[in-house]
Known about the structure:
Layout: H1 16-21, E1 24-29, E2 32-37, H2 38-41, H3 48-52, E3 67-69, H4 76-85, H5 93-103, H6 106-113, H7 116-129, H8 135-148, E4 155-162, H9 166-178, E5 187-189, H10 198-210, E6 215-220, E7 235-241
Parallel strand pairs: 1-3, 4-5
Antiparallel strand pairs: 1-2, 4-7, 6-7
Helix pairs in contact: 5-6
Amino acid sequence: MSISSEHKPLGKQVTSSLHMLSPIVELNVGGEMYTTTLSTLKKHPGSKLAEMFTGQPKLRTDSEGRFFIDRPGTYFKYILEYLRSNQVPTQCIQDVYKEALFYDIEPLIKQLEDSPQIFGELVARRQFLARVPNYSENIELMIRIARAEAVASRQSSVIVCVVRTEEDAARCQDALNSLDTDKKSVVKFGPWKAVPSISDLLDCIQMDVEAKGYKISFQPHVAEKGFRFKSHDFFYKFLFTWW
């Protein structure tokens, strides 16, 4: 018995509108394949993820008819776990947090922000660095100086001056006038009004430069020429290793 054309089963090449009618949704997230339900994706109506699957489809499909989301697929499984069972991920917290922000899943964002990893970064470290004048600009300046001095060299160094108080800033300027280096190439951090110490700031500098892909270390900078204050009270040498 032949099946009339109007009752033939649909293949994988389906139109987006027909695909949306199905409670089962196939996804291609950055090359990772997932199958879930429409109700799971729309669990939080105010989220960007729910919006993608509300009304007319707002996503392109791949060659197999799966909805395509151009995001890291590895971490989408944690997003799905949360949507399915309210399970807050305990792995890859920083990366999952970025995806939760992208998909705008507010309850997951709030719960992740309560985790030690995100709380420490957002509340403690970032708020401290926000009190260090021109911190981000100085990080970029360090990198520019290091790159400029890297010609035909395996390593290049940048001298950093770190002062925590206004009094130290004045003393540092005194020391800087006697320092045996080009004053324009010295990057100054501080002063700041917060509990973290100079060693805490140095760790932050190393952490943030390494996050940009550079291999870096630091040590106190001891000037060859003597002057009134010990140079390692203020000055540190950051060493960039290129190969």
